[in-house]
Structure formats: C-alpha cells, structure tokens
Amino acid sequence: MLTSAPEEDGGMSDRRHVEEIERVLDGTQTGRDGFVSASWRRCVELYGMDPTRRDPAHIVTQTELRDHRKQAEWLIGAARSSLQSLFRQVAGQNYALLLTNATGVCVDFFGDDLFLDELKAAGLYLGSNWSEDLAGTSGVGACLVTQEPVTVHQDDHFGNAHVALSCTSAPIFDSLGGLAAVLDISLLRSPSPKRSQNLAMSLVTNAARRVEMANLMAESRRDWVLRLSDSPEFLDVDPEAAVRLDDSGRVLGYTRGARRLFSDGGAVIGRRIDEVLGLTIDDLPDLMRDRPTEERIVQMRDGGALFGHAIAPQAPRTALRVDRRAGPLAGLSGGDPAMTRLLTQAAKLARSAVPLLIAGESGTGKTKLAHAIHMTGSTSGFLAMDCAGLTCDALRAACADLPGSATLLLRRIEDLPPATAAVLVGVLDAGAGLRVISTTCAAPGALDLPRPLFHRLAGAVLDLPPLRQRQDIGWLVDRILRRRSPQEMRLSPSARATLLGRHWPGNLRELEQVLDVAIALCEGRVIDLPDLPAPVDRSTDLPPPESLEQIMEACGWNMARAARRLGVNRSTVLRRLRQAGLQPPG
Ligand SMILES: Nc1ncnc2c1ncn2[C@@H]1O[C@H](COP(=O)(O)OP(=O)(O)OP(=O)(O)O)[C@@H](O)[C@H]1O
Model ipTM? Predict the structure, then answer.
C-alpha cells in the first residue's frame, strides 16, 4: 500500500496520479503505455519508491561528472554535431537536449540560457542521473531499460516531482550492438496530449541514428563500410544503416538500423557478410559511388532489396610524407616510413655531386630511383649503362660523347668486368661535371670491387627495401593499375588481400607483371582472384628470414594480412606475438 498524496501542495491531480499508480499495481489497465506501467511496478516493487515524495534531482559530484565525461569522450565527440543540428531545429521551443551515458548520467547538454535555473532544478542539466532506480520512471530511465525510443509524458513519470516534464528519449548503440547512451529531448512545459511529442520522437530517433553512423564511420577508416537505405535519395547523404567489414568480409561492427536486416537474431560480429546479408565482400566494389545510385541494389535474404553504398578503406594516414618539392622522388612512395626516410635523404643528395650507390634486391626500383635523382638534380645529360660485359672501349666511347654536366648510371656494378674497373676510375677522375650513380643487388659491403673504385662510387649508399617490407603496397597497386590499365579498374577485396599478402621475390617488377596479366585477363572492370596469375617463382616464395616485428610492421599490424603472408592462421600470429612480447605500436 502506498502512502496517500500530501494534502498541502499535492492537490487533486497529484492524488489522482498516486491513485492510478495504486490501481496499476493492483493489475488494472488504466490506458497507460505498457512500458510505463511496467516501470511504475519496478519503482515500487523493486526500488521501494514512494510517488508522493518530491525528491530533488539526483546530481553527481563535479569529480564524478568529470570522470563520466572523460569516459564518454568518444561518444560526446561523435554526438556533438548531431546534437548541435538537432538543437538548431528546435531552437526557441524551450526544449533541452541531454546526452546520457549507459548509466543515465547526463554527460552533454544543450538548453536555452533563459531557463537555465529552471532546467537545473528539474534535473535537465549536466551531471543529473536519470537511472530508473534513482529518478523513477523517466524518458532516459525507461529507454535504458527497454532499449527502445520512448516518450514519458507528464504524469507518465512516476514521482510527483517530475509530472510537469515531457521527455522523449532514444537509445544509442555502439558498433558492437551494446547500449552506449541515451539521447533525450525534454520540455519543462508541454501541451497535454502525448501525441504532441511525435515530432520530438522522430527528431530524436533520427539524431540517435546519425550519432551511431558518425561513430561507426570514425572507427572504420581502415575498413570497408557498407551503408544501406530504402530510398536512393538518402543513400549517400543520410543512410539508415551501416555495417563495418574487414577485408575478408567479416563483420566488425554495425549500427542499430542494420541489426534488423540481419537474417537471424544471433551474434553477428565476426561472421562473414554473406552469412548475414545477401551479398559477399567482392560485391562491394560494384556498390561504390561512381555507379548510379539506382544501380546499387542489394538483395536482402528476406526477398526485399535496399540501395547500397560501399566505402573502401582509406589509405593509412602517415605522418611521414616526402616533401612535395622533392618532385619525381615524391612519387615513388605512398607513405612507407623507410621509403620516406630514404627519399628525403635522396632529395638532399640529389642536389650535391656525391656519387651514389643504390642497393636493393632485383626489381625494387633502383633504376627508377636513379632517374628520379637525376631529374631532381642539376646535371643535364644522362647515360645509363649495364655493367655486365661492359668493355673498356665501349665505356670510353660512350663517355666521350657526354656533355660537360651529366649523370652516369652504372647498372649492376657487381657485374663490371675487372679490366673495365681500372678504366672507369680514369673516366671518373677525368670528368669534372660527371655525377655517377651505380646500382647493385649485392650487399654494398660484400661488393668485390677494387677499393679505389668502390670509394669513387659509394659516397653515400641508398638501401631500397624489398616490396614485402613496404607498408604502401596497396598504394603502389592502385598507382600501377591507374597507369597501366586502359580504363579505370578496381580490385575485388579478396584479390587485393591476396596481392598484399604475397612475398614478391621479384619486387616491383613482379607486381607490375602480375597486374599486367590481371588487366589482360579481366573481363569487366573489377579484377578478381581468378584474374591473378599464381606466383611464378615459388622456389624463392618462402617466407624470408625477417623478424616477426618487421612482418607485422609491413602489414600495418593487420592480423589477417600477416597471417596470409606467413601462411598461418590468425590465432597462430597472435600466439607468436604474445610469445615474442610484441604489441602494436601506440
Ligand atoms: N615506385 C615505383 N612505382 C611504380 N613502379 C615502379 C616503382 N619503382 C620501380 N617501378 C617499376 O618496377 C620495375 C623495376 O624497376 P627498376 O628497373 O627500377 O628496378 P631495379 O631495382 O633497377 O631492377 P634490377 O635490379 O633488376 O635492375 C620497372 O618496370 C619500374 O617501372
């Protein structure tokens, strides 16, 4: 039995409210929404609350508020612009907006300064705690329990303290499907019909959906995102649902709108997209923005269809970039840290006359780098010679025609016949304006050259990394594809993953050839697995003796890619990392 309503200030309506709660507890249907009756029941039977008490709002301490806000930083960031635009839409209508965390504490707030004192007194402010067991039936509290959008209007509230308010709240889910927050729009005073809040309901649910979308997009820069909409007009600007996928098509996250599209109610994270929706990862390139929206149709498993918009992973952002003023040198790398360091040095050395020795495995781009250095430097003539079988006469004849200022490129210096070595020393000493660049596949220290010659060639050594150690393979693939295909072509995600996972004993030359073959074999515009030639040089296609850390770095610490490159499964990679005490940087 509840205590009776206070006579002094409760008045008739307060008493009626308390009486209705009593009747609901007795099992009478009073016309209240079912979730409201259920909440009233919990308030009395579970939390032992008394509706006649006018408790002040529950406000956490400043220190607690700071902690709550710190923990919700990501959420506040993702929600800010949606809240701002929602607040603009309701400006001048006395609404207050509250963003609470999953425990019901308000961590962000927008309200009209004119009513700030009233809003604070009513608990519509930063730090107020609206969890049901403290504040009774409220929009936020009921939303946290039901995980559905709700309007708790006037005397839907449990306690007499809040019956003037009208609160409409929508849940916000994180990308793993957990309830993360509640977005609430509240009025101090409102018209009595509950339906007056229908517009508020639609505003708050749309804003919550946008917050989930913003959060998912912020998490997904390195992954595929598939966005879905019922209508082609909203697909690119305000889609209803989104799924985040890794490059093998496994679900990494989703927005609440996508949950209802999945074919069964079971756990979805980690499952392949073709198991939960009616498409595979390789269908995504066909759903990118360059296709007309009406053609981007995704068949759902229930027989329905939606419009789809696939967003490809963005290239990793790297702090290191070669200065654009380095000209042709800057175009040789897509942000691989070792290449960036090397090219930055090369750009400085290019302006000097220091003889350069470029070392690296076959096909790593030594000749291309030498050309770029020449183009960046100040010499005018350019002569490239292969050292294998180079005779003294041929060397003397070729150098005799060189202009006063020239670059002499000697390819594969390790193959220089010993007899020519002595002549080369003479040529270099005689040519005052001659800048020499040589290349070698051997380790510079192991070069079997006469010392006088070695010191005239190796003023500085530039060591090119093998392709398998580069972190910009994806960038190189796109660049080569753009340059060598007659029309715009793309790779299916599985074809891309395969290329990123190969060992590339033939380095960039091999990559170019593989892409040439794929371009020739591919019938449409999307290169898929069957278009890729198998690795030719399997004998050397064994994992090189590199450290696990080097491989992880080359794979951007992507477990799936490292597993493919090592030819083991992901759990083995994880185990080996743990054994080696390795962790991803930062
Ligand atoms: N940064 C790059 N981007 C795209 N393609 C490149 C790049 N560097 C080199 N290549 C291409 O890779 C192929 C091999 O390059 P290059 O001839 O410079 O290698 P190399 O190391 O001199 O080879 P080798 O040791 O066999 O003489 C060439 O076709 C070249 O165009």
Answer: 0.97
